[in-house]
Amino acid sequence: MAHVLQNVVFPLDRDPDLLPLYADPETWSVIENEPVRVSNRAHLGNILGRHRARIVAGRRVSMGTYFNAFPASYWQHWTSIREVQLTVRTTGPATILVYRSNGSGVRQRVATCEVTGEATTSFDLELTQYSDGGWIWFDIVADEKPAVLEGAEWTTEHEPVRTGKASLGITTYNKPDYCVETLRALAASPDALEFIDRIFLVDQGTQLVTDQDDYADVAERLGDTLQLIRQDNLGGSGGFARAMHETLQRPESDFVQLLDDDVRIEPESLRRSIVFGQYATNPVLVGGHMFDLLDRPKLHGWAEVVDEGPFMWRTLHQDRMPHDFGISNLRQSMFLHARMDADYNGWWMCLIPVDAIREVGLSLPAFIKWDDAEFCLRAGEAGFPTVSVPGVALWHVSWVNKDDTIDWQAYFHARNRIVAALLHSDMPRGGTLIRHSGRVDLKHLMMMQYYPVELRARALRDILSGPDHMVRTLSTAMPEARALAAKYPETIVHRDPTKTPRSIRGRQIYRSEPVNEGPRGVRLGVYTLTTVISRWFQRTDPAHVAQPEAELSKSDAHWWRVPAFDSALISTADGSGKTVYIHDRAKFRRMLRDSLRLHLQLRRRWPELQKQYRDALPELVSPQSWQQIFEEKA
């Protein structure tokens, strides 16, 4: 029996920006070192359906794309499959060419077949030469007449290691429209629903999904597959923990597939992730990539890791991300042909084996931030690695127009990163994390961002109080952090241009240096010391309190530029307004002293706290502990 590993698909939306992810012209030109598609590109008008496409006479279209190439290296490395079959169904005269690449992106042709009329062509392809990386794909060239690709799929005769389905866990807080759209896409995708046991929609908001006009219709179409759960807002970690907990009660489910709420899904990706999990030789977490929902060909990361020294997350090849497939296709992007191993995957889309949950527990009660990374690290230590599989992805509202390190989320960024390090870092006293954390405080203080520093200090105090605070403050930490903003004028966003203060200079100040250039080496040390001394003694000119001294755009408001002023008018990350930052000597002195004292305490007590948090972890993440939380917050 042939098992379908991957279908060749075309976009659900008639969006020209999406097409480079599915079908590609063979010929690109290069203008000023930038690859640019020429006139023989694939067109939306040639997409005839979810699985069908027209190839215009004399033209060539490649399936060597993100969603339609086969990620051979991942299947070879993580499964025992050593041969796949590519089946291509066509009508009309055409030539089918099959290619492979290696980990360096070098292309080789492996098969060619000319077809006419109605044809079904199969290629048996070995998965034995892809240890470092590589894809397999096919191109179709039409002859003197148009040809039609009627469908194609990658299959195997190999039986899966696991046959159970997946439950879906969607956590939402006031994103009901996105959720209904996700449910509608699932209801219209029988290929994906075939692998789904249950859909747990955990609604933690005040704008309920059930109040959406289209909800009743889509709920009826999904029937018993959909289960709505209402609970207090326990953040992403509480919502996903609930989905994990419910999945444990489903004997038909071998996995839980976590999905964020503000996303647009590719149903074929859901199917692929579950199938990959079924075939993995040993149970693995299957992560999905994240494309930008507002810039849809743009990929934000390929594989995410946590650097041991500072214990900070990042994506591999960070200098090349985000990657725009509308500018550089898969075949041109050589670095995307290497197999990349991840430490964790964001919970915008992540498939977790039930075996892993039974062994390591549920999500840490972290509310938001680092819950996904911490769980993946914990699972990895127990023998359940994370694999971010190419061709498995969705579109998520990106953080390009956000800066959640200076709003109420600064508390969770600081606390959960350090808690995760206490649980998983083997570096003496956290490596360089404590020094890095202190530098973050210092930069905020020099930029007159006192609110995030206050939140970060609160985070350190909670950490020092011991692990019990995580459950105790699970539902209160967020509202308390948001309420604290009222004490800090810089949190006020001025959106009405008629009421927004104008700077004394009357216009924006523009940079003269390159965007990311700042003091380094000896200059950095000298600059920091002189700025701190200056801020410590400097009294703010009353005129600069009444009116901002300068105005800077968000992109110009670097930590080494803002301290030149007593006060500054700075744009918000999303461009919706402006905020006013004012130097406050008393706050600067108090917060700098607190930051030094708290970080010194953390460093001194690190071994003691590490033992406390590691000893408490099994109880913090146990189904019994979460069950009690759910009952109390029902």
UniProtKB/TrEMBL annotation:
GO molecular function: glycosyltransferase activity
Pfam family, one: GlfT2_domain3
UniProt keyword Transferase present: yes
Keywords attached to this entry: Glycosyltransferase, Transferase
Domain of life according to the entry: Bacteria
Pathway it works in: Cell wall biogenesis; cell wall polysaccharide biosynthesis
Start and end residues of each Galactofuranosyltransferase-2 C-terminal domain: 433-631
Domain Galactofuranosyltransferase GlfT2 N-terminal: 34-156
SUPFAM superfamilies: Nucleotide-diphospho-sugar transferases (SSF53448)
Similarity annotation: Belongs to the glycosyltransferase 2 family.
Record-given protein name: Glycosyltransferase family 2 protein
Organism: Microbacterium maritypicum
Organism lineage string: Bacteria, Bacillati, Actinomycetota, Actinomycetes, Micrococcales
